[in-house]
Design goal:
265 residues; alpha+beta; two-stranded antiparallel ribbon; 10% strand
């Protein structure tokens, strides 16, 4: 796992809390409209159904309740920029938990309502600096909430992909935080200054070892939109496919990120 040597970007805790609740609310409103046939449909996440994907959104916040019930750790063990690289090892465990919860729940709307209410209560009673014993190591509560913007944003996009026309909105602050964290993680994974990656309007990072650009137009530039970047960073789409679809503009002999994508897998 690459060490988080890059200076961690600062996020406004109040805006992140509001973004998490807003994005979850958008998903809750959309799921409420789905028919049994739609819920039984496939997703791009292996054998997950839309129903299992919907349930997974509640788990993204349910972990807060579970971990905050434990004794507070004595020290922080995981930096925010380490989190994207720690998640892959738990993929099977997360998938099993999702299927188990989906099989035990009859009323999805009630599950979403319960989770929204409980999360708002936890937000009102938990300080930003409170340490949380996550499965990856102890993290500050404020940092954990930034990771929740990634979970909710990525899986909202999965839901929209599974049901074209559903068009669940992306909260602007949640989309921004998700984009920035994954962009910063790229800079950790591929340290350097030879390539400038632009994801307007939310992030610009330099990465990839080689001659560092200092002035004027960078010789190696990659530019894309936030959702395309998120799909690349999480392996939803591949580098070649994004180029072929004109979803990414890449110029310069070093502007090929295929070797360092996805950031999360």
């Amino acid at each position: 796992m690459p060490p988080a040597k890059k200076r961690t970007r600062r996020y406004d805790p109040a805006k992140i809390r509001a973004a998490v609740l807003a994005q979850f609310g958008h998903v809750r409103d959309a799921v409420r409209t789905l028919t049994p046939e739609q819920l039984a449909g496939p997703t791009r996440l292996g054998d997950w159904t839309v129903r299992e994907l919907a349930v997974h959104h509640t788990m993204a916040l349910g972990m807060l309740d579970r971990y905050l019930a434990e004794v507070e750790p004595l020290k922080q063990e995981l930096a925010l920029l380490d989190w994207p690289f720690a998640t892959a090892a738990m993929g099977d465990q997360v998938a099993d938990g999702t299927r188990e919860l989906a099989a035990s729940v009859d009323d999805l709307d009630a599950l979403f309502e319960q989770r929204a209410t409980r999360t708002a209560e936890l937000f009102a009673s938990t300080p930003d600096e409170r340490l949380v014993p996550t499965r990856f190591g102890a993290m500050a509560f404020a940092d954990v909430l930034v990771t929740r913007t990634v979970e909710l944003t990525v899986h909202t996009d999965d839901l929209n992909d599974a049901l074209p026309g559903l068009d669940v909105p992306h909260d602007r602050q949640a989309l921004a935080a998700c984009t920035r964290l994954l962009a910063d993680a790229l800079a950790v994974k591929a340290p350097g200054g030879s390539v400038e990656v632009r994801i307007p309007p939310y992030a610009v990072v330099q990465c990839v070892a080689g001659p560092k650009h200092t002035r004027g137009t960078p010789p190696n530039v990659v530019e894309t939109d936030p959702l395309t970047w998120i799909r690349l960073a999480t392996g939803r789409i591949g580098w070649a496919g994004a180029l072929d679809a004109a979803k990414v503009a890449a110029s310069g002999e070093r502007a090929d990120l295929s070797a360092v994508l996805p950031v999360m897998s």
